[in-house]
Design brief:
With 160 residues, the protein is an alpha+beta fold. It has six helices and five strands, in the order αβαααβααβββ. A hairpin with a 5-residue loop joins strand 3 and strand 4 (132-134).
């Protein structure tokens, strides 16, 4: 897991968590989630255990780039900017970007949600693997299955 994270950080221009204890805890959490669910979901978020609902929080999560750009670190602090890497005191909590509709669905993942236009930030679903992305437009390429943007559809969870 360490090699996976460090390779990803290097390939994408990030640094890994500068706090050695936190870094070890985050790696352990990723390994535990890999063993528990079969995929390394973010250790700082609650996963449902259903990959369709958790695809947006499989490390590195869909929100990492925006979080590092805005706050200098991802939600859990695993990936950081150079500035935060050089000054670990800048590691601090940041707001959750994951849309409430997806958070609710992970807790009530007992049936397939219906497809509708989303309120607020649009949510896009990959028709190939079920990956969910909250952004203005679909990702150019699915980070899970590598499907192109035209394989995404707008997604909204039906109210329960």
């Amino acid at each position: 897991m360490r090699q996976y994270v460090e390779n990803d950080a290097e390939e994408n221009g990030y640094h890994v968590c500068p706090d050695p204890d936190l870094y070890e805890d985050l790696l352990e959490g990723l390994v535990e989630n890999q063993e528990r669910y079969g995929y390394p979901s973010c250790p700082c978020r609650q996963a449902s255990g259903m990959k369709t609902y958790d695809a947006d929080i499989i490390c590195p999560c869909e929100y990492r780039d925006a979080d590092v750009d805005e706050f200098g670190m991802c939600y859990c602090g695993l990936f950081v900017s150079q500035e935060v890497s050089e000054d670990p005191d800048k590691l601090e909590p940041i707001p959750e970007r994951r849309p409430p509709e997806i958070l609710e669905a992970t807790m009530e993942a007992d049936e397939e949600p219906e497809m509708e236009e989303s309120e607020g930030i649009p949510v896009w679903r990959c028709k190939v693997c079920g990956y969910l992305a909250a952004r203005d437009g679909p990702p150019p390429i699915c980070p899970i299955c590598k499907a192109k943007a035209d394989r995404f559809e707008r997604f909204r969870l039906s109210p329960r």
